[in-house]
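Review form for a predicted model. The reviewer records the input and the model, then writes brief findings.
Reviewer: anonymous (R2)
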Amino acid sequence: MSSDTVVITDCDLPSTACEDTVGAAGLRAVGAAARTEEEVVEAVRAAGGAQALVVQWAPITARVLDAVGGPGGVRLVSRMGIGYDMVDVAAATERGIAVANTPTYCIEEVASHTLAMVLGLGRGLVGYDRDVRAGRWAPTAARPAAVRPSTTTVGVVGYGRIGSEVARGLAALGFRVLVHDPVVPAADVEAAGHLPASFEELLAAVDVITLHAPLTDDTRHLLNRDTLASARPGVLVVNTCRGPLVDEEALADAIEAGHVGGAALDVFAHEPLPAGSRLRSLDTVVLTPHAAWFSPEAMADLPVHTARNAVDFLAGRPVPSVVNPGFARVLAR
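Model under review:
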């Protein structure tokens, strides 16, 4: 049974497009509501085994892979989204299991949401709105002070599909753009009209930081007490990428101390954002509910793209979004 089975461990989208896409290819789709390691393993066992997993938030750890992989077992994990930090890619690679993501379904949405956050935060739109609703009319009381693009430098951390689109949009609006990405050649950044910089150089030079880096051991709490302290006074922070890139307590402290001018955040270490989070009470913080990815078109594309990874892989067709290092060696096993 497992040779034609795709287990969808978890999915909070309202459509059945993932199941429909798998079924239309002549494969068997089995949906589950697995959010823990034990539940994932049980879902695969209940399905009689599987050769592919479609995963939204469920943890796919070495322990899970040992239980569901092996001869005749799972050969591909397809992540429903761009980030794949819930999948242990190193463990999957060691076991000859491919991991793919869906990197193109919401580029425009996240980039435009980021630009809206930079402009909304930088122009103090939320503060203005609150003031007018409360009966105050104070056009020079923007919190933080309203920015002029031509005199404002934005640091883009991560220059992948989304980061490069954000940088392009910022430059078109007149902002000066610095880019930090340790895996992108400086010449590529310069060719696009931006300035490459080390992370330390970026922190010291920019008025706004926007994060577009993957979540790894090296990038977890990339913005922490030390790095925020080394940033320019009044710096603004935008995060539409992964919540744990920012130490939220350190950020709240820096905002309360006045060193960080404000923040616009779409992602958080724990979601939904806990009721007791200090970020909720800070009036220079703009919060959105992990919505940067959303549009009707993106919602329609996401489950289809994720399912097609599994369909193509099991049919022996190339899956360009496989993220394992040295994937050719994985295929050869």
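Findings: The longest helix spans residues 296-314.
Further findings: Residues 83 and 214 are 7 Å apart (CA to CA).
Recommendation: see findings above.
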